[in-house]
Design brief:
Helices cover 14% and strands 34% of the residues. The chain is of the alpha+beta class. The mean pLDDT is 94. Pfam families: PseudoU_synth_2 (PF00849).
Length: 253
């Protein structure tokens, strides 16, 4: 997947009520800053000017969020009723989300459940970050749960890494990034949660791969193509397959 431009928006699913896009990495969903002209909102307005809703601030109703650095499947509602039905699915925890990531080091367990509570970091200079319960400056930590499944062991630019499937069972800010860092396997290219050490990769290796929203009469179910394959990034060299991605997704369904 090439970097985002105003006219290379990738559509995974479209109906009269919803669009699911494959969001580029290093792209904000929307912005109130005048200098940030390239956002997912501006890509949508460029591609679908007739679908923008003048009753909303951004023209489109985003059903959920993805970090600036994270790529992958993101659902957009095209009217108020559709947004309401998607919101209900998220509120009632009927939505299934699964992410792909490359993490530093070789994860030894084939599966693990990560349960660190996450709160806001109030330490000076770190207020844009989240942190796990028990760390200094961690304010108002809330229960959190993520599932991790090892797919492949390999290397990235010669360093040991593991390709994993991550499933957030709660929805805290930066949850997967914080949980991976907390178990000693930060996401490759995550500058923020690697103590500002991991700056060489061209992107953070976290991708929203699978999304399922049973929105009323409509079942939205998409996979955003896996960017962590050697054909797309020759720095990633898989060495040993633990679980096939297709099998794990089939299990989720």
């Amino acid at each position: 997947m090439e970097p985002g431009t105003i006219d290379n928006l990738s559509i995974l699913y479209q109906s009269s009520d919803f669009i699911v896009v494959n969001k580029h990495w290093d792209l904000r969903i929307d912005s109130k800053m005048w200098y940030e002209t390239l956002t997912l909102q501006s890509q949508l307005k460029h591609r679908f000017p007739e679908l923008a809703d003048p009753d909303t601030y951004y023209g489109f109703r985003f059903c959920h969020q993805l970090d600036f650095s994270t790529s992958g499947a993101l659902c957009v509602a095209l009217n108020k009723a559709a947004a309401g039905s998607a919101y209900k699915c998220f509120k009632e925890r009927l939505v299934t989300k699964a992410y792909l990531a490359l993490v530093r080091g070789h994860v030894s367990q084939s599966r693990m459940t990560i349960r660190y509570a996450i709160g806001k970091n109030t330490t000076e200079g770190m207020t844009h970050m989240m942190c796990i319960e028990g760390t200094e400056g961690c304010e108002n930590p809330k229960p959190c749960q993520s599932e991790l499944i090892v797919l492949e062991h390999g290397s990235y630019s010669g360093d040991p890494v593991t390709k994993v499937l991550l499933q957030p069972l709660t929805g805290r800010t930066h949850q997967l990034r914080v949980h991976c860092s907390a178990i000693g396997h930060p996401i490759v290219g995550d500058f923020t949660y690697s103590q500002r050490g991991d700056s060489n990769p061209y992107r953070m290796m976290l991708h929203a791969y699978y999304l399922r929203i049973p929105a009323g009469k409509e079942l939205i179910e998409v996979c955003a193509p896996d960017p962590f394959v050697t054909a797309m990034d020759s720095n990633w060299v898989p060495q040993h397959v633990t679980q096939r991605l297709e099998d794990v997704i089939q299990e989720l369904k």
